[in-house]
Amino acid sequence: MKTHTVRTHRSDENLSREGQLAWKIAEVAVDPVAVSDEVTEMVINRIIDNAAVAMASITRGPGIAARSQALDHPYSPGASVFGVTGGYSPEWAAWANGVAVRELDYHDTFLAAEYSHPGDNIPPILAVAQHVGCTGSDLLRGIATGYEIQIDLVKAISLHAHKIDHVAHLGPSAAAGIGTMLGLDAATIFQAVGQALHTTTATRQSRKGEISTWKAHAPAFAGKMAVEAVDRAIRGQTSPTPIYEGEDGVIAWLLDGPNASYEVTLPDAGEPKRAILDSYTKEHSAEYQAQAWIDLARKLHNEHPELADPAAVDSAVLHTSHHTHYVIGSGANDPQKYDPTASRETLDHSIPYIFTVALQDGSWDHEASYAPERAGRADTVELWNKVTTVEDAEWTRRYHSNDPAEKAFGGRVEILLADGTTIVDEIAVADAHPLGARPFARADYIRKFRTLAEGVVEEAEVERFLGLVQRLPELSVDEVRQLNVVARAGLLETLATPTGLFSTKGQL
């Protein structure tokens, strides 16, 4: 790996194109290095994972709305949209599929200086592959690049420290991945990366306070912008330059300021793109920092069933990392995190709620655990209000560690009982984490897909998709176009579909 120092430059310094981070990203994208077998297997896992969570969300509001927009943009051959047959304009297919993948907060994650869901790269890259006519090996190389660039940026550059949403790293990574897949030259990818970054910087208010359905749409918007940026770059249109380092660029005005510098490490020429192996998926439908806490709560439920009774508990304090405390914990100072009428999006960013329900139920379900009647249960609300978080310096240090063996996303819980006794336990990583009690393997991804597709997809369609995706490197152009999952007959027709500006019905 090669480390690049990235800093703001005055306009009169005339930073060369080759000296810019967007160009260095483009150089990684055009490197024809082979994809390793290990990375290939993980890419397949993550395509299965995306399809699983997408099928669980296609009957939910955000998925329905985004799909209805895509269906108003038919195109032949175009790209496929989860749940339906036919071809659609690739940027709109990327949009609809991106929302379906993201809505339940249930796919892969990587956390470092910034937060990310690198699986968000797959919908735009796959949509372009289907539209243009790429092979499975082309698609594989593109996805490997998308993961590499996003994870490398996430390791180096914090966006949330300046209240910028994490999808600002996704626009450039998806553009780079598309560039790799299409075999574009470095100059074209450079322009696409710059445009994709410029159009995808937004505030983190979408993840603060009362969290709206836009949380599901934000990554899909970044993917859509990446597709459009590549299209413009291919047509010869240029981007703001230098996009990261310019006097009025991203670093100077959105991040650490004119005097700041970052150390960004990217693969050197000829070095394999392996970053996807650093990421991890979710066993539970909740913010990633909640994964380990759900597992610990399940353990405590079995060992101490009395904890389900709020009368038995005086307080429960979760000692954890800065991020967990301030973003999804009581340190956020968001009253909505204790509101039983809060939206699902808000509850999946409330670790006091999640820990409480998992502690009482000994399980976690992507629907039942968020149901209004579950959140409003009197004994749950009583116990919920006794759960708080505090930042622990050691757990924050471990959260930011670059050593995989030390990096942790959990913490220590101290539960004071009404009788004066205390129960203390801790967990470093989720059970499904590569270093956890039950690391996810291919069989787990397939089981997750089968579970979430049940009742939504016919068994024959499940088998067809699983048989196809597991041959990814050898897929033909036509087979790549079949990398989609169609809902069982009649399911989607029962749903009320909203109309809008693009409606083919011609009226609102």
UniProtKB/TrEMBL annotation:
Whose protein is this, by species?
A: Naasia lichenicola
Q: Which family does it belong to?
A: Belongs to the PrpD family.
Supply the Gene3D superfamilies for this chain. 2-methylcitrate dehydratase PrpD
- Keyword Cell membrane appears in the UniProt entry: no
| Keyword Transcription annotated | no
Q: How does it assemble?
A: Monomer.
- Any single Pfam family the record assigns to this protein: MmgE_PrpD_N
* Enzyme Commission number: 4.2.1.79
Q: Where is the MmgE/PrpD N-terminal domain?
A: 20-262
InterPro entries from the xrefs?
Answer: MmgE/PrpD_sf, MmgE/PrpD_sf_1, MmgE/PrpD_sf_2, MmgE_PrpD, MmgE_PrpD_C, MmgE_PrpD_N
Reactions catalysed, as given in the entry: (2S,3S)-2-methylcitrate = 2-methyl-cis-aconitate + H2O
Q: What class of enzyme is it?
A: lyase
This chain's protein is named 2-methylcitrate dehydratase
Task: Tell me one GO molecular function of this protein.
Answer: 2-methylcitrate dehydratase activity
Residue ranges constituting the MmgE/PrpD C-terminal domain according to the UniProt record:
284-472
Q: Which UniProt keywords apply?
A: Lyase
Q: What lineage does the source organism belong to? A: Bacteria, Bacillati, Actinomycetota, Actinomycetes, Micrococcales
